[in-house]
Structures are given as C-alpha cells and as structure tokens.
Amino acid sequence: MRTAGIAVVVLSVGLSCGGASAQRVAPHAHRALTAAPGGYAWYVRGELLMARGDHAGAAAAFEMARGQAEQRGGNAMAVTAHALRLGGPEDPLLLARMAEALELSGKREAADETLAEARASGPTSMAVALADARIATGRGEPQAAIAVLQRAVQLHPRSERPAHALAAALREAGHAERARDVLARLLSHQHAQGQPAGAVALRVALAEGDTRTLSAAARRALSSPLSDRDVLHATAARLLGDGAVSVALEVLRSVPEGRVDPALMLEALLQGERLAAAEAWLVEHPAEALGGLLVAAEAQLRVGRPLRAAQLCELRLSTHPDDRAAGLLAARIELSQGRPADAAARAAALPNAVRAGSRARHVLDQSLRQGGLGGLAAELGAQ
Predict the structure, then answer these.
(1) 274 neighbors 303 (Cβ within 8 angstroms)
(2) Could you tell me the end-to-end alpha-carbon distance of the chain, in angstroms, rounded to an integer?
(3) Cα–Cα distance measured from residue 105 to residue 296, given in angstroms and rounded to the nearest whole number
(4) Which of 166, 207, 322, 346 is the most buried (most CB within 10 A)?
C-alpha cells in the first residue's frame, strides 16, 4: 500500500531546480509573513494557480500583485524581521515568479523581459537565481542553468536550496562527481554552523537521491540521537519508496516518542510484513491520523481484520456513496469473507467493471471464479 503522504513528506524537504508546480505558497521561506491586503493576496493567488498548473492565470495574478504594490507606493507587502521580502513592484521574488509563469504559459519574450527586470532588481537574489535556472532547464539549456546556480552557491554557500539545485543540474548533465562535491561543501559549511552532522548528512543524501547512500547515511546518523523530525520522516519516506523497509523502520523508531507520523509508520509496518505490530498500531491510532477511513480499512484488511475493515468502508460509503475506491475495497472485503456473490454484485456495479485490465474487472473475475462461475469469468475475459 503506497500512500500519497510519502510524496508529500519528500517534497517538503527535497528541493531541486524542477518545475514550479511542485512549490508551495511562499516557497522560498518557511516563515511567518505579515502583509497588507491587496498585493500579497494576489501573490498568494498566483502561487496557488501555479501549483494547479494555470500558468496564464498565475502570470495575471502576479501582475495584479505588482500593480497593487505600485498603487501603495511600494508598501503593499510588509515583512517581519526574517521573512521573505515582498517589498514593492520591483520585488525580485515577485518578478522571478512572474517570469516563470510567463515562460510556462508560452510567453517567452515577456518572460525574458521580466526575468531581466528581476536580475536587475535582485542581482544577488536566491529566488531569482533559482527561477532563472528553472527557466533555462525548461528550455533545454543545462549549462546556462549550471552557471546561474554556481554563482548562487558562491553567494549563498550555507543555503541548501541553490546547492541542491546545482547538484541536481550537474547530475542531470552527467557530472555525478561534481554534484557530490557540491553537496560535500554544503555539508562542511552547515556542520561548521553547528548543525548536527547526522541531520546535515541525511539532507545531503536525500538530495543525491541514491538509496544506498541514503541508507548508509541513515545508519550513521542513528548512532547518535537526532531531533529533526522532518528530516527523519523524509528519509524514511524515501527509503520506503525505494523498498529499503528495514532501514526506514529503524529511522522511524528513532523519532522522539509521540512525534512519529502515524501514517508513515503504518506504511512501514505493512511493507515490512510486521502485521502484528501494524494491528497494534491500528488499535492505538484513529483512522484520521492514519490517512483516512479507506487507508485504515485497507490496513485492517491486510492485518486480517475484515470485519473492522468492512465497518470503516461502509462508514465511508455512508457519506460518499459514489466513491469508486470505497466500492472496490468493499468488494474485496466481501471476497475475503467468502461472500463471492456479494463481491461480484458490488464489483459489477462499478463504472469500469467491464473494462479489461481494470481493478474492478479483476475483482469481478475473482468473485465469479470463487463462486464457481469460472465459465462466465472466462467468457467475460474473452470479450
């Protein structure tokens, strides 16, 4: 059972020079922002539209944010002491994001003009450099992206984002050794700042993307206590995604008591076939903490508790009767309970039950065969 939570955890820590759609609102800092209404509201709207893939709409929203800043004399977007500065119509971040939105909506000339303004407004801005590199990468100009990122790393040697982006660009261009050197320098700078070596090493290994390297870094890091919950969760999620279940479980068990992600731990226990431990985990945690009713129902079925699985599934169907995933799971539960007729009836009612290769068709076929109707199953398979 693979959950969407794995991807979310990794994205929140592993940053590269990939597409803008993977970024979150105010992607360049995880800090509090205070702002007057108007300009910042349009900026946030632009980021949300970017995340949804509506690049033309995002470009228009960023333009509105810029216009609001002009009307307010450059003070539309206030800041806190360490917050991302959105200070006016020539704000580097705003211009950089607008350039990306224009580029992704096919307006290359306008994107170039806006990016030039961003560079002039923020010649040392990390946000501008990252946007510049993403645009160059999207145009198939890896060397241009690498050059921009190398300068950003020189300007911000202790920052993870440009180093990770540069390492990713170098690996993509076939320079794996140079990518490792970039991350090693980052490790040296961060360790000199007093950050725990184990946590820094895990961040670097996450950026490298190699399972063997990450597993080795995780085992080394676990030799001393780590309190960075986000890094530990991201490490475990990546390891689970790559099938390194035993190391992932070690990592999750090292998270301070009471702070481990319940859904991620359940995923690890199930993948590792620790079914007794998974059953106990299910008893201790509500469905909401595990990813929802269907995730919990699927897990209950997996650990051999079909009655509890059926209860959770029916609870979901009572509020969402057209939920296809819930209907399919209910059919599978009925099949596991030795009720092939009920399972076949439920599976046959699903919209794609007649489509070859669909999961509903597979459950229908299994139900018919288990119910002694192998001939009918074969006939359906021949259609």
Answers:
(1) no
(2) 30
(3) 40
(4) 166
Domain edges within the chain: 289-383
Rounded-to-integer distance, Cα 53 and Cα 66, Å: 21
CA–CA separation, 60 and 82 (whole Å): 28
Q: Contact 136/114 with Cβ under 8 angstroms?
A: no
User: Residue 38: CA atoms inside 13 Å, Cβ hemisphere, count?
Assistant: 17
How far, CA to CA in Å, does 334 sit from each of 29, 46, 134, 317? Answer: 49, 47, 50, 15
Q: Check: CB of residue 202 under 8 Å from CB of residue 221.
A: yes
Q: Does residue 179 surpass a pLDDT of 70?
A: yes
- Going by C-alpha positions, the residue among 269, 321, 272 that lies closest to residue 295 is 269
Q: List C-alpha distances in Å: 164 to 62, 131, 156, 184.
A: 27, 14, 12, 11
pTM of the full structure = 0.55
| 261: confidence class by pLDDT, cuts 50, 70, 90 | very high
Among 8-22, 308-322, 335-349, the range scoring the smallest mean pLDDT is 8-22
- Alpha-carbon distance values, 313 to 134, 150, 295, 337, 340 (Å): 43, 52, 10, 14, 17
Query: How far apart are alpha carbons 355 and 182 in whole angstroms?
Result: 50
Rg, Å, the chain Cα set: 25
Residue 224 has pLDDT above 70, yes or no: no
The candidate with the shortest Cα–Cα distance to 14, out of 233, 192, 190, 182, is 233
Are 303 and 278 within 8 A, CB to CB?
Answer: yes
Match 């870094």 to its residue by tokens: 217
Chain centroid to Cα 312, Å, comes to 27
Architecture of domain 289-383: Alpha Horseshoe (1.25)
Q: Are 381 and 368 in contact (CB under 8 A)?
A: no
